[in-house]
Design a protein that fits this description.
The chain is α/β, with parallel strands linked by helices and 186 residues long. The protein has a 5-stranded mixed beta sheet with strand order 2-1-3-4-5.
Length: 186
Amino acid sequence: MTENPAPLPDAPFGDVLTANADYAQAFTDPGRPGVAGRGLAVLTCMDSRIDPLGALGLVPGDAKILRNAGARVTDDVLRTLVLATYLLGVQRVLVLAHTDCGMTKNTDADVHAKVLAQGVDSRSIEFRTIADQGATLAQDVQRIRSWPFLPAAMPVAGGVYDVRTGRVRIVVDADDDAGATGAGGS
C-alpha cells in the first residue's frame, strides 16, 4: 500500500487527514483482536455530542459501537448485531438514546419538507423520527429481543444519555419484558 502524500490543508478533508498524520506518528498497535472485549454492543445516535466509550467507561476494543440517527433499530442494525454476536463476542446490547435529540423534534413530514426546500424529493425514505422517546426505545429494545437470529436470553437494555450532564439513565431494564420503566423526555 502506498502512503498518502501530505494532505492539502484546504482540501475538503485536509483538516482530518492532517490530524490523522499526527495521530499516526504516535500510534502504537495495542494488538487487540477485533472482538468486543467486554462483550458489549452499544447502539447510539450519530449526535456528535455523544462519546459512547467515554460515557460508559470503555476503551477502544471493549465494545462494538453502532450509530445512526436516533439510535433506531433498523434492519441493518439487526444484521450487524448478528455478526457482532456470533463472530465478534457480543453478549449484551445497550440501546442508548439521548436528550435533545433532533429525531424527537421533527416528524418524517417535517424532514421531507426541509429536504424538499433544498430541491431534493426524499419521500421514498422513512426517516424513523421519534414522537415518544420512551415508547420508541421500548419498541426498539423489543425488536432486538425478538429477532429470531439473536440468542433469546441475550440481555438487551435501553437507556437515555443526558447531553447536559453526561449521565445515563436506564429506562428499559435488561429483564423488563413490559417495556419502558419511567421513560420519557427528548
